[in-house]
Design brief:
The structure holds 2 protein chains of 2 kinds. By secondary structure, chain A is mainly β. Helices cover 0% and strands 49% of the residues of chain A. The model of chain B has no long low-confidence stretch (mean pLDDT 92).
């Protein structure tokens, strides 16, 4: 199993551009999450999904959109990129259910908006 | 709203010494997680604590959970340089979505 994979690893955007951060997991996990990590800070939840077709906002959803059409994929869309979205983005997944509560994290995407 | 506080935020210690990192949280929860992050890397799961009084140990690290005090500790025994990293605690927000709220992290530096 590859676990949780994210692409791209690095990206530089200009203000106002758009992009999609890809996240795929091959563990058949129901739950998936997008976090952002600003320098010297913990992780903040952007969006999450409890299954295909179901998504909900986290703590900092403004400027982002998500979709979950399959169990495996959970892309994060940035529309009209702003410097405040410069951050490292982590995707995570979790199986859920009794005893299966550990979140597995992807390697991250480092995004800079100039 | 669940808040998670870690202290200290920065910790510089000598090899061979012991120290404890504290994680306090503001509302009832019975699930707490500890993660390690090396610079420029992703998060690595260290411990999952699922009940009051839970204690888990791995090498020189030991984590415990007191749900009544809303407190978890990560104890480091006889620190070595390889333990230098940032350590995060995260608390399950409850409600069935398995959402986590993270502390700001403790940056640990172990000096020879």
């Amino acid at each position: 199993n590859a676990g949780v994979t994210q692409t791209p690893k690095f990206r530089i955007l200009k203000i106002g551009q758009s992009m999609t951060l890809q996240c795929t997991q091959d563990m058949n996990h129901n739950y998936m999450y997008w976090y952002r990590q600003d320098p010297g800070m913990g992780l903040k939840l952007i969006y999450y999904s409890v299954g295909a077709g179901i998504t909900d906002k986290g703590e900092v959803p403004n400027g982002y959109n998500v979709s979950r059409s399959t169990t495996e994929d959970f892309p994060l869309r940035l529309e009209l990129a702003a410097p405040s979205q410069t951050s490292v983005y982590f995707c995570a997944s979790l199986r859920g259910g009794q005893g299966r509560v550990e979140q597995f994290f992807g390697p991250g995407t480092r995004l800079t908006v100039l | 709203e669940l808040k998670v506080e870690q202290n200290p935020l920065f910790l510089s210690m000598q090899e061979g010494k012991n120290y404890t990192i504290y994680c306090n949280y503001s509302t009832t929860s019975d699930r707490l997680y500890w993660y390690r992050q090396d610079p420029g890397k992703s998060l690595e799961s260290l411990f999952v604590l699922l009940s009051n009084g839970a204690v888990k140990q791995e090498g020189r690290l030991m984590a415990s959970l007191d749900t009544k005090a809303r407190l978890s500790t990560l104890h480091i025994t006889a620190a070595v340089h390889d333990l230098s990293a940032t350590y995060f605690c995260a608390v399950d927000e409850r409600g069935g979505s398995e959402k986590l709220v993270f502390g700001k992290g403790t940056k640990l530096t172990v000096n020879p």
